Amino acid sequence: MDRQKELYEEIYQSLHKMKSIKLDALFDGLTQHEFIILQIIEKKMRENGKGIYVSEIADYMNVSTPAISRKLGMLEEKGFIIRNTDEEDRRNIYVCLTDKGKIVRREACKKMKILSMRVIKKMGCDKVEKMINLWDEYSQEIQNVSEMMKRGE
User: Fold this and answer.
1) What does the H/E/C string look like for the chain?
2) Of 115, 116, 95, residue with least CA distance to 34
3) Is the overall model pTM greater than 0.85, yes or no?
């Protein structure tokens, strides 16, 4: 059990290290959260050609709609997004990337790809593949156990 406790602490130290890495310099005027939001919007625009509802972004990022609205306000001020009223249901607002937002997102993606490819080259494909597989397995187990705990098991 002592080893489990040590591993528990090591996992959260490792997560903290990952979270504390500042990649904002790669994103040309974007924060990491703003970059993620642009990624979400772009993906949805590719899927439906329209955009994404504010509430969908909030759900995807697991944050409140007002918190996302504040972030969207900053992105709108920078000229990266526009908000449109849904013609079918005027109570809903959907969000689209502007041409400027598409360019900034695309450039940030290029830089992220370069960074990732350098790290993969340095670590080696085998190690990275093992890390991904183990992290996926760990994430799935967290999901499974948390569902069991919710049920009182």
Assistant:
1) CHHHHHHHHHHHHHHHHHHHCCCHHHHCCCCHHHHHHHHHHHHHHHHHCCCEEHHHHHHHHCCCHHHHHHHHHHHHHCCCEEEEECCCCCCCEEEEECHHHHHHHHHHHHHHHHHHHHHHHHHCHHHHHHHHHHHHHHHHHHHHHHHHHHCCC
2) 95
3) no
The pLDDT mean for the chain works out to: 91
What tokens does 19 get? 């979270």
pLDDT 10s digits, 112-122: 999 999 999 99
